[in-house]
Structure formats: structure tokens, C-alpha cells
Amino acid sequence: MQDLVIRGAVVIDGLGNEPACVDVAVKAGRITMVGKISEDSLQTIDANGLTLAPGIVDLHTHYDAQITWDATLSPSPSLGVTSAVMGNCGFGIVPSPPPVRDLILRNLSVVEGMNLDSLRAGVRWNFEKFFDYISALRTIGPYINVAVLAGHSVIRTAVMGEDASVREQATLQELELMGKMVSEAMTSGAIGFASSYSLNHSGYNGVPMPSTIS
């Protein structure tokens, strides 16, 4: 007896095989059979005319701010996304010392085309360091799996403030502090380090995003 059988869907298995109209059985939360299934099940879904596929992993998102007020991460789940990576291009909202929080949001509003007033009203600053941000995400309980990259631009901003977008060379002390922040982020659960050198990435009032001049 299976827990669930989804019948008659066009299955795209993600392995490169041709789509096929088959049944899929699930037991104890795991797929147990794919094919023509005659076995009974506790629940049956008639998926005739529908497509069934593994969840999509979106490797490039910018939900870093939105996730603090929208646990659904709309519209990703409705598009079949079950896992998302945030912090791409080195843009994000952590680390976020209070004096530079509005600067972080101003730059983010331009480079990602977000409404600044919405960001100011929406972001819940119950974190400052990367560890606190990861803890906040666990409390939020996003609808899909998320992973976070440590961001070059936001780390540079956290250390250098307004100078991050105008002064190319950081001091040795600033570089040491940035390195410490990257190390803390990786220890706290970041899956990598993201940066951007694209000249198309400009911040508030046309200033370069910090990573592009470093």
C-alpha cells in the first residue's frame, strides 16, 4: 500500500529522459515507483493533463530583503521553485550596522529595481551580523529552501560606509575587518562569497556598487 499515487501526469524527471505519461508513487515522503502503478494507495491524485517535475533550484535570486517580510518568497513557489540561493552579485542586507542600513537599502533599491519606500517599510532589522540573519531566517520559516551567499558589496559597505562606492583602496584595518566578516559569514552558514565587477551595477544616485571599484 502506497501513501500517495499521482496518476497520469506527464513526468519530466530531470535526468534528461523524454517526458512520459506515467504514475508516481510516494511512501513515507519518498518516491518509491515511477511507471504504470496498479498498487492501491491511501491517496490518489488524478494528474491527467498536468506536468510533474522535480522542484526547480533557482541559483540566482535577490530575496535577501523580501524574505524578512514575505515568507512565501512570492512568486517563486507558484513557478515550481523549491530552493533558492540569495545574496547573488554580492548584494544583500547583512552585515548591517545600524548607521549604514539606509545606505544598504538605497543602493539595493537601484541595482535591483526595488521601491525604496517599500524596502524601508518592509525590512525587519532584527539582525546585524550574518549569524543573526541566518537565525532570523530559521524563525521566519520560508516556504522554500534557501541558501545565502556572503556579499562583497554589502560587506564593504558595512565597513567603509559611503566611502565603499568612491574610494577604491581600503585600508589594511578595513581589509582585516572585511576578512573577519567573510569568515564569520562562512562559519555561520554562508554557502560561498559573491561579488560583481559589472559596470552595469550602479547604486543610489548613480554611484558604483562597492565591489565594482574594489
Automatic annotation (TrEMBL):
InterPro entries: Amidohydro_3, Metal-dep_hydrolase_composite, Metal_Hydrolase, Metallo-dep_Hydrolases_sf. Residues 43-207 form the Amidohydrolase domain. GO terms for molecular function: hydrolase activity, acting on carbon-nitrogen (but not peptide) bonds, in cyclic amides. GO terms for cellular component: cytosol. Coiled coil: none annotated. PANTHER family: COLLAPSIN RESPONSE MEDIATOR PROTEIN, HYDRANTOINASE/DIHYDROPYRIMIDINASE FAMILY MEMBER. This is Amidohydrolase 3 domain-containing protein.
